[in-house]
Amino acid sequence: MRIQITTQNMSLTKALRELVHTRLQYALVRFAHRIQEAAVSFEDVNGPRGGPDVHCRIKLLLRPRGEVNVSAVAVFPGDAVGQAAQRAARCVKSRTRRRWMLRRRMRDPLNFGSAA
């Protein structure tokens, strides 16, 4: 899984880059074979005014096709990427389950859902 990180109105430090890689690997390790690329972007919304102002967006390109977009806002970039990574994992899990159920229905449409 390739990870691309971009920032707006804030600096990208080595510590933040490592934190993003760690959080994404931890949250998405189960689905790594389905994820082709991850794009993570950070934006400091309020600037010097303070408050919950770090907006993190994660865009995942899935194999064989599909896309997942999630975002989170927090005071610290680490918290924002952690929340967004957990949301991304839930979305990928949901999409994977949906595809599995559709394939199962297509394979055996008459017996799906009936008791054996």
Which descriptors apply to this entry?
alpha+beta; Double Stranded RNA Binding Domain; 4-stranded mixed beta sheet; 40% helix
Taken from the alpha-carbon principal axes, the silhouette is elongated
* Parts with pLDDT < 50 across at least 5 consecutive residues: none
Question: Quick one: biggest sheet?
Answer: 4 strands, mixed
* Domain module tally: 1
- Strand arrangement in the largest pleated sheet: 1-2-3-4
| Overall residue-averaged pLDDT value | 85
CATH superfamily: Ribosome hibernation promotion factor-like
Distance between the termini: 41 Å
Q: What structural class should be given to the helix and strand makeup?
A: alpha+beta
Radius of gyration over alpha carbons? 18 Å
Question: Share of helix among residues?
Answer: 25-40%
Total number of β-strand segments? Answer: 4
Question: CATH first level: which class?
Answer: Alpha Beta
CATH architecture: 2-Layer Sandwich
Q: Which fold name corresponds to the CATH topology?
A: Double Stranded RNA Binding Domain
Layout of helices and strands, plus pairs?
Layout: E1 2-8, H1 14-28, E2 35-44, E3 54-62, E4 67-74, H2 77-107
Parallel strand pairs: 1-2
Antiparallel strand pairs: 2-3, 3-4
Helix pairs in contact: 1-2
Q: Summarize this, please?
A:
The chain has 116 residues and is an alpha+beta fold. 40% of the residues lie in helices and 29% in strands.
